[in-house]
Design brief:
Blueprint: E1 2-8, E2 11-17, E3 33-39, E4 54-60, E5 63-73, E6 80-81, E7 86-90, E8 101-102, E9 105-109, E10 115-116, E11 122-125, E12 128-134, E13 143-151, E14 160-161
Antiparallel strand pairs: 1-2, 2-3, 3-13, 4-12, 4-14, 5-6, 5-11, 5-13, 7-8, 9-10, 9-12
């Protein structure tokens, strides 16, 4: 097994090859995965306190599946939420993604629209770089982070990440 740590702007990506990764239900083989830390202040620029969305370093060719764990603190209090966010309240105008739980994990592929990921597993479809963020309209007072596990599977698809440059 080969393990590499690739550091990008505001994020770290650990990509793993070899045994021990998730198993592709189509090909029945272990597929590469990447684990990415998503800080609670990760959000699209233009939102108060946002440090920018997390560039995962993963280039999606067809689809990608994301599963997340962890918890973030919001409003500078002891209140925390998992990647699924506040399931009893939805984000309204002023949030990066309306109509889904506040303080949840969201993602987009390339310049595509933001999509709800939550705890997953959630599959996003598209082509381009995968970006992750927290669905919050005021990130300045947030703390902690989510951990997102990213895997791709598809007959003949190749999982490309910044790690490929090191291979």
């Amino acid at each position: 097994m080969t393990l590499a740590l690739v550091v990008g702007p505001g994020s770290a990506v650990a990509a793993e090859r070899g045994s021990g990764g998730p198993v592709c239900p189509i090909m029945q083989q272990t597929v590469p995965s990447a684990t990415v830390q998503v800080p609670a202040k990760a959000g699209p620029t233009g939102f108060p306190g946002a440090t920018g969305e997390v560039d995962t370093g993963v280039c999606v060719r067809r689809s990608v599946t994301v599963t997340a764990t962890g918890a973030i603190g919001i409003d500078g209090t002891q209140v925390t939420y998992g990647p699924q966010g506040a399931t009893t309240t939805t984000a309204g105008p002023g949030f990066p993604l309306q109509g889904v739980p506040k303080w949840s994990l969201i993602g987009r592929i390339g310049n595509g629209p933001w999509q709800y990921i939550g705890a997953g597993p959630t599959t996003l479809v598209g082509r381009g770089e995968l970006y992750l963020a927290v669905n919050d309209d005021f990130l300045s007072d947030n703390s902690r982070s989510f951990m997102a596990n990213i895997s791709q599977c598809g007959c003949g698809d190749h999982f490309w990440s910044a790690m490929d440059a090191l291979a």
